[in-house]
Write a structure and sequence with these properties.
Elements lengths: L1 H40 L9 H15 L2 E8 L2 E8 L8 E7 L18 E2 L4 E3 L7 H16 L8 E6 L10 H5 L2 H4 L3 E6 L11 E5 L1 E10 L3 E2 L8 H24 L10 E9 L2 E2 L2 E2 L3 E2 L2 E10 L5 H12 L6 E2 L5 E4 L19 H12 L8 E3 L5 H5 L5 E4 L15 E3 H20 L14
Parallel strand pairs: 3-6, 3-7, 7-19, 8-18
Antiparallel strand pairs: 1-2, 2-6, 4-5, 5-20, 8-19, 9-15, 9-16, 9-17, 10-14, 11-15, 12-13
Helix pairs in contact: 1-3, 3-10, 8-10
Length: 449
């Protein structure tokens, strides 16, 4: 009897303890999710993002955690919000956690839920523009640091959080100006984390490089002619020949991906994004007149493992040859990012033992019960390229497993459980990064030797 009573008392005690933990945890989770929803509800869609509203919100969050904060405008009306948690050894190279505040536009009528309501459905999915790209990451940084500060953790290295504008339109007035400023040099950054992609599998995805954007316009010229006349080298005919040549190249690259020989980020992608031709009239286009000019725009993405000179020759000799009245020169690129650094080396972040930050990331994810997949080249472009251009290691990472890739899509969403787990992952990463001292270099603080 006595033994049964003791056992019963233990069970009762455990039940009440678990109940208290559950009751306490639920309001905490609700607060975490409501902060995320608040950030998502700020409409920062291009071309008219509410940057000031986002800045006010982020600085209020920094104040609630006890982080130093400031807003810097390299271009008027486009603030870079910088938050700081000072390390106990601020002479060590710092950690930069970067994210962007802007999001892409939406077609509201094609969404099941209003894209800036941050609707939480019965399955725990949070629908909002920016839920994956990339307001989730910015808030996960903050929530992870909130937890670390509450636990009494003190970083050795200083930690900076940067929230930059205009990534979705190239980042030229945001991360690019930030990275090349004297202001940035004073931060003494040693490692940068930036955005990655969702993973449909259990494995998180991490990116060590990205494809460089080459935005190209090809023009064709020719004599105007009657709509019924057949003759060689009309502007439209020559442009169509170029488009067909581009299509064949695109198919050859896509076949490598479909066959599993290469990942998407390892091939050159080419997509036609606009076609401009014809003679306009008040009722549409003139139908019996062949135009004297025609042009097409292409979004080309070039991995650092490719040969950019070979691609440039292909453009000049096959896609826009002067012999077909095509005009092409490098100045016609709308945007042409570098593939190699100033020393002629591919712009990549190493993923071997020579880069301790990569090893630390893998270990931190493992300790938080996550798994990393094979290192990848990011198939598009992020702000990380501006930091890699400086020679800094930069890793793209967004902790979203078992999640469809929905950035820039209608009905973009992130499940609340994946969001909360991502905070655990970042808490582990930030703790390990902020505690790291390289004993093989002179960066170790003297009291650590």
């Amino acid at each position: 009897m006595e033994s049964r009573s003791w056992s019963s008392a233990i069970c009762t005690c455990l039940y009440h303890s678990l109940l208290l933990v559950s009751v306490y945890a639920q309001p905490q989770e609700d607060s975490i999710l409501s902060r995320f929803q608040h950030y998502l509800q700020i409409n920062t869609a291009q071309p008219a993002p509410l940057y000031q509203e986002a800045t006010d919100f982020l600085i209020s969050q920094a104040n609630s955690i006890g982080l130093h904060s400031q807003s810097v405008e390299f271009v008027k009306g486009k603030p870079v919000v910088l938050l700081k948690w000072t390390g106990s050894h601020p002479n060590l190279p710092s950690i930069l956690l970067n994210s962007h505040t802007d999001v892409v536009p939406v077609e509201q009528h094609k969404w099941d839920h209003p894209p800036f309501d941050a609707h939480l459905d019965s399955l725990g999915n949070i629908y909002a523009r920016g839920s994956q790209d990339m307001k989730c990451v910015g808030m996960q940084y903050l929530e992870a640091i909130r937890r670390l500060k509450s636990s009494g953790f003190q970083p050795l290295r200083s930690i900076y959080l940067s929230f930059v504008p205009d990534e979705e339109i190239g980042g030229h007035d945001g991360a690019e100006k930030f990275a090349h400023s004297d202001f940035f040099k004073e931060l003494n950054v040693g490692i940068v984390l930036d955005e990655g992609l969702a993973s449909p599998t259990d494995n998180y995805r991490a990116f060590y490089a990205e494809r460089s954007p080459w935005w190209l316009v090809i023009k064709a010229a020719g004599a105007p002619g009657h709509g019924a006349k057949l003759y060689d080298n009309s502007a439209m005919e020559n442009l169509l020949k170029s488009i067909e040549s581009v299509r064949r190249f695109r198919a050859s690259q896509f076949d490598l991906v479909k066959a599993g020989f290469k990942a998407e980020g390892e091939v050159v992608s080419v997509n036609m994004v606009f076609l401009k031709a014809g003679t306009p009239s008040p009722t549409g286009f003139v139908m019996n007149l062949q135009p004297s000019e025609a042009e097409a725009g292409f979004d080309i993405r070039v991995p650092p493992t490719s040969d950019p000179e070979s691609l440039e020759r292909r453009i000049a000799e096959e896609w826009a040859p002067a012999s077909r009245n095509m005009s092409f020169h490098l100045g016609q690129f709308k945007q042409k990012g570098p593939v190699y650094d100033k020393h002629g080396r591919p712009i990549i972040t190493k993923t071997d033992s020579s880069n301790p930050w990569w090893n630390l990331l893998e270990e931190a994810v493992r300790k938080a019960n996550g798994k990393l997949g094979k290192p990848e080249i990011f198939p598009a472009s992020t702000d990380a390229r501006y930091f890699r251009d400086l020679g800094l290691p930069a890793i793209g990472f967004s902790p979203m497993a078992n999640t469809p890739v929905l950035l820039h899509n209608h009905n973009e969403f992130l499940n609340q459980d994946e969001y909360l787990k991502g905070i655990d992952i970042y808490e582990s990463i930030i703790r390990d990064y902020a505690s790291y001292v390289d004993q093989t270099t002179d960066e170790a603080p003297k009291d650590e030797l």
